[in-house]
Amino acid sequence: MSAFRRFFVGIASVLLLLLANPGAAQDAEAPIQKLLQDHGEAIAKSSRTTIGPAIQALATSGLPAAQIVLEKWQAKEMWRNEDTGLFVYAEEVDRDTIKIFDFADGAEIGDSPDKDFAQLKPNSGIRGLIGAALVQFQLSDADPTNRMTALTAIERDAEPSHLAALRSSIENESDPSIRSRKERLEQLLTIRFGEIDEERIAAIEGFRGDLGVDVRAALNPLVATRIDVVEGGIPEDSPEIARILKAGSDALPVPAAYDLLVGANLVPPRISREDRRNALIQNIVDGSVAGIRVADLNSEATRDMAYAELARTGAVRAAATESELEDRMAGFTFVERYVAASPPVVEAALSTLGAIDTKVGLNQAADLALDGLSLASIYFLAAIGLAITFGVMGVINMAHGEFIMMGAYTGYVVQQIIPDYTVSILVALPLAFMVTFAAGVAMERLVIRWLYHRPLETLLATFGISIALQQIAKNIFGTQARPLTSPAWLDGALVINDVVSISYIRIAIFFLALLFLAFYLFLMNRTRIGLETRAVVQNPRMAASMGINPDRINMLTFGLGSGIAGVAGVTIGLYAKVTSEMGQDYIVQSFMTVVVGGVGNIWGTLLGATMVGFLQKGIEWLNPSNTLAAQTYMILFIILFIQFRPKGIIALKGRAAEV
Fold it and tell me: What are the angstrom distances between the C-alpha of 133 and each of 70, 87, 104, 195, 571?
């Protein structure tokens, strides 16, 4: 088809459309269409390098139709008439026909063959630019969800143009939470894109002490520095100078400092010893280099002299040898200069960052204390049963960790039967107590009762039982870790701020530890079995003469300690892996907790758990890259502590003190 014929068909198509919809006759005269025509070539070309002005013109035009143009363009629904150059948006009717609409008023123009129009298909980069431009329209959208989406888009990829749009949308914002978020974001954008130093400084000072990560992300670029070279000296109080650097320091090694001078064309480039050696070899003439005999090139000084002479004659390029670097740098000063903002803004940013760092440090200490308290509650739960069996009865039970493991597996089995996690945990806690209580009673009746006052044999026997219980667990459940899922209301964490947080599971374990402490105190001080247990501990023969059965009390006491270990296993399994070896992760800490606190005293166990938990977290904080080393240091400290206080923090009174 000839060019003339195509032009005629195009004009005829437009005339038919105008006849079908007289309102479309104003299409070419509409302000939005004129704006599109002004940038028509750039829009049609759709190159990311040249499309920016067109998108910016639409976004800032103030025309009501600008938003629909950007939305249709982004969705690849904008078309351009091949002959007239007019822009429309369209819907596909069938394979060869489209229904076109006017951008000015959204009126339907009619159906047309799609061969007369070119569909604009912006790539992902251009769609991203369009999306950024649409944000300002979404900020005032009637749907709160769209406004929140726009704020999220700005937070992710802010641009200077967003600041004015954000400011204009704040006044009419009716939702308090969205308004608060807009105001905070406006202050952050003012820090980044504000044109007046005073407003930037006011925004910076408004965040003094704020712990938000977004604040530090906005402030840190303001204090960015660049290392510059200055000939001669400079005033030390220059506001744009962060500090003066000395070549050869850790911040500026000599080679790096010299490279800066080379980059500024202030000195010749440096040459390595290997390159200098090769250059000298290549210029050997009759056994000499630059008039110096090869045999005399036996020192750095003579080799440097020979190379300098070659450079003077033009045989090699002029360069500084390694021995000359420091001498050539004399007379130059290296400074670290603030380059991202004016000195007043930098000063305000440094002051605010200093206040933030101080507050971050205090909150990190609080977060570390919470971690230590959380770990202490876990160790207390794991050790409270051992405090009964080892502290009260004097039995070294190396299988205590396996009772913890049995409790965790009990919780897992219950969850396979009861799918409701809340109900399953409520069932698992008492069931784990009963299972491990029964196991403890059986162990005491069958093994422990024959080994009282024989600690070595007790240790070996319980160690063998520990290995046997681990193998039984592997045979039943396999070696793969099993999940013990916490209820939904224990998911997540209590977030105090961007630095301090603690998981709800650990909070629950902390309160469970307090509950067991209260249970133990009530049992030992307010019940008959507690009275009989204390009597047997202090003087078993006298207790027997008073009608108390020491064997029965020993059995129940050992069962009680084992049962509490089972409950601890359920709670620990909610956040730790449930495997046949999980008990081994807590047996050492449990013994340390009991020994450090004072054997046989519940308050000592509590203090011991607190000490061990805080000590471990403190050492891990000092040495975060090596957890095993941290545990080793902790054990060494405990050994040293016991040397000075062998009976622990609170000394025991009664039978176990003699063990």
Answer: 8, 19, 19, 20, 51
Residue 5 scores a pLDDT above 80:
no
Helices (H), 478-601: 504-526, 528-538, 540-545, 550-573, 584-597
Dump strand ranges (E) for 37-172: 78-81, 87-92, 97-101, 108-113, 117-119
The percent helix, strand, coil of the chain (3-state, each to 5) is: 65, 10, 25
Write 470-479 long-range contacts (CB < 8 A, 24+).
470/402, 470/405, 470/580, 470/581, 470/583, 471/580, 473/402, 473/405, 473/406, 473/409, 473/580, 474/580, 476/409, 477/409, 477/412, 477/580, 479/579, 479/580
Q: For strand 493-495 and strand 97-101, is the pairing parallel, antiparallel, or unpaired?
A: unpaired
pLDDT at residue 334 tops 60: yes
Helix (H) or strand (E) holding 383: helix 343-386
Q: Please state, in angstroms and rounded to a whole number, the distance separating the CA atoms of residues 325 and 321.
A: 7
Identify the burial level of 659 via C-beta atoms within 10 angstroms of its C-beta, where 0-12 means exposed, 13-18 middle and 19 or more buried: middle
* DSSP string across 12-50: HHHHHHHHH-GGGGGGGGSHHHHHHHHTHHHHHHT-TTT
Q: Which residues contact 120 (CB under 8 A, 6 or more apart)?
A: 43, 44, 46, 73, 76, 78, 79, 80
**CA–CA separation, 348 and 358 (whole Å):** 16
Rounded to an integer, what distance in angstroms lies between the CA atom of residue 498 and that of residue 207?
14
Element (H, E) at 406: helix 400-417
Identify which of 383, 399, 408, 395 has the alpha carbon closest to the alpha carbon of residue 486.
408
Q: List the alpha helices (DSSP H) in 194-330.
A: 197-206, 213-219, 254-263, 273-282, 300-313, 325-329
Task: Decide if 37 contacts 85 (C-beta within 8 A).
Answer: yes
Mean pLDDT score, 300-323: 77
What separation, in Å, do the N-terminal and C-terminal C-alpha atoms of the chain show? 109
Q: What is the largest CA-CA distance in the chain?
A: 125
| Cβ partners under 8 Å of residue 347, min gap 6 | 239
Model confidence pTM above 0.90 = no
Does residue 261 sit in helix, strand or coil? Answer: helix
Q: Which of 269, 135, 586, 151 is nearest to 403 (CA)?
A: 586
Joined tokens for residue 104: 């000015």
Task: State how far the Cα of 1 lies from the Cα of 13, in Å rounded to an integer.
Answer: 16
Could you tell me if 337 and 241 are in contact, meaning their C-beta atoms sit under 8 angstroms apart? Answer: yes
CA distance 247 to 502: 46
Residue 438 banded pLDDT, cuts 50, 70, 90: very high
Question: Which residues are paired to 229 by β-bridges?
Answer: 334
Query: Could you tell me the two tokens for 539?
Result: 């003087």
**Angle, CA 290 vertex, CA 284 and CA 295 arms, to 5°:** 60
Q: Report the distance separating Cα 634 and Cα 641, nearest Å.
A: 10
Rounded-to-integer distance, Cα 532 and Cα 543, Å: 8
DSSP string over 213-237: HHHHHHHGGGG-EEEEEEES---TT
Residues contacting residue 43 through CB under 8 Å, at least 6 positions apart: 36, 51, 54, 73, 80, 87, 120
Q: Is the pLDDT of residue 17 over 50?
A: no
CA-CA distance, 98 to 82, in Å (whole number)? 14
* Average pLDDT for 179-205: 91
Alpha-carbon span 91 to 76, nearest angstrom = 10
Query: Is the model's pLDDT at 214 over the cut of 60?
Result: yes
- The residue-averaged pLDDT of 466-483 equals 89
Q: What is the CA radius of gyration of the chain?
A: 40
